[in-house]
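Hi P.,

Sorry for the delay on this. The queue was packed all week, but I finally got your sequence through. Input first:
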Amino acid sequence: MRRIVEIARSHGIGTVFARGTSRAIGLWRDSWRLLGERLTARRALALPHHPEGLKFEPVDPLVSVAVAGGGDWRFVNRCLRALHNAETERPLEVLVFHDRSIAPEMTMHAGVQLVPVSSAIPFTELLKQIIERARAPYVYVLDARAVALPGAVAALAATLENDPAIAAACSKICGAGGRLREAGRAVTDDGNIQLCGAGSSPTDSRFEFLRDVDAVSPAAFMIRAGSLRSALSGATTFTSAAWATVDLCFELRSRGFRSVCQSFSLVFCDVDPAESAVASDARAFAGKWLRGEPAGRRDDAGSILFVEEHVPFTDRDAGSQRMMSLVRRARANGWLVVFGSLDKRAYQPYCDELKQAGAEVLLGFGEETLSSLKARGSRFGFVWLSRPAIASQFIADVRSSQPQARIVYDTVDLHHLRLARQADVLGEPAGSGEMEQLELNAARASDVTVVTSAHEAGILRGRGIRDVAIVGLAETPVERVPGAENRAGVLFVGNYAHAPNVDAAVRLAGEIMPLVWKRIPGVVLTLAGADPTPDVKKLSGKLVRVPGFVRDLTPLFAGHRVFGAPVRFGAGLKGKIVRAMAAGIPVVTTSVGAEGLQLEPEEMIVANDAQSFADAIIRLSENTEEWDRYSVGARRGALRFSPEIQARQFDAVLSA
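Then the structure:
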């Protein structure tokens, strides 16, 4: 009651009602989520009343599934029924390691390899029998009492296919009540096994992304067949499944491989994953691996929190591509990454892409989120705040809740510079003065300010900002550039939710291309990109194509003769231009478009007036020798924006 009175005095009675309503809605949603979790678990774990024969056709399998511990035909039948509905692109090879007592019920299944084993067989020996019989490149070891939901097997296979450094991946396991039993395992410094996430909701953000773990769960894990065979050659025999899998993962780690928990692979299981721990195995493990050293993965690199307006739209704008590359680089360096999105919406496939990059995603990020992160014990080495509005909103709260963190203010581009130019070009006020003050205040309050080019670094240093670092864009030049003879037309690409791109498209179609058409009739202009505005859409016609969002731009860059970007206002590096350079298509742009690129001769043509711009397009369209020179120059210039250079720039910020 006292707290309610305090809020009423400081914020007003409306805030009290708003918070009360928000809390009630939150409790209602939690109740429905818990009910849904229980119903999902109940349906998945329902046992059959009568044996049901199932047919598998293991032709060219990608995954061999070893169903282990079959002592009750009902559990095995339920497990096989789930595998039959597994939703995999290639058929599964299924092996059932079962107790001899249920042999009659097992013979009704077709295409299943049956292997009678004793229930007392050491788990290490069971793994050796599995690898002797499995034919597929990946082996999925699954407890007979486990039920893999649709997509669970495919998610694990994709994890191993996408990252050769990952040797083993386990499913996220839920119990009969719908709550998490585990999401992988951790090994404490004194050699005990802890089940990650036990008792939590399966939608808890801490376990809803691809996470490195000390060990996979023996109840449901996939491993490369070659890695399993190699690791078993030097493995100690452990009786219990718990310690055998821990030993296996430590053996893999000693060889430079990772073990992960794949949150997109969900399994329900009746068995308690901790029930098989054996004291003698724990002593054997400690004698083999600990030797006075810490047991688990070391997270010495610490944690980093990124805060952005929304999850990165990696195929829609250069800023998002840059953000995703920084997240991936942080994970590659061993940082634990948390990504805070102010927008509550889980835009797909972008949100899942971020989770699969290894980042915990917090949607609807706010001041309360910072408090909850502090309450759960999260300590960040760095907090990376993108754009001036976000930095201004959160710097004070970050200082209070995470005093040990270094605050990075990432400008993305200098907004006030873009707004001032927009005002000059369009002749309308754009609030550049207020934005400049906001940006400078954020820069002064941060520990380091990040820009994308030396040009903007110089502007900030000229305003008295001392700690300025550069982290640019990253593009990899294509290996082969199609020649000029098979190309035609002029291309522009931009996200039209951004005003400079709308202005550039309108100017290109309305002022510049008519001059080109006088000399070369019939040249087609393509204005590609997401969210075309009405002004852009109405440009569409016989000689102007407006295809809208194009997920894969590679064919457009490979098929057009010239990339034209008559950008009159903007700031920062222009991702569209760097991308075009990397694709080897000659570029014609303005001084604003070329800003920050540190151009060398014949890397692109810079033209600010409509006639000069049109003349450059005409020359590149008609003169193959000139086209070749500028194509080679563009790819050469793109090397200044390689992923390796961006990685070094990013690493320098985090090591300062």
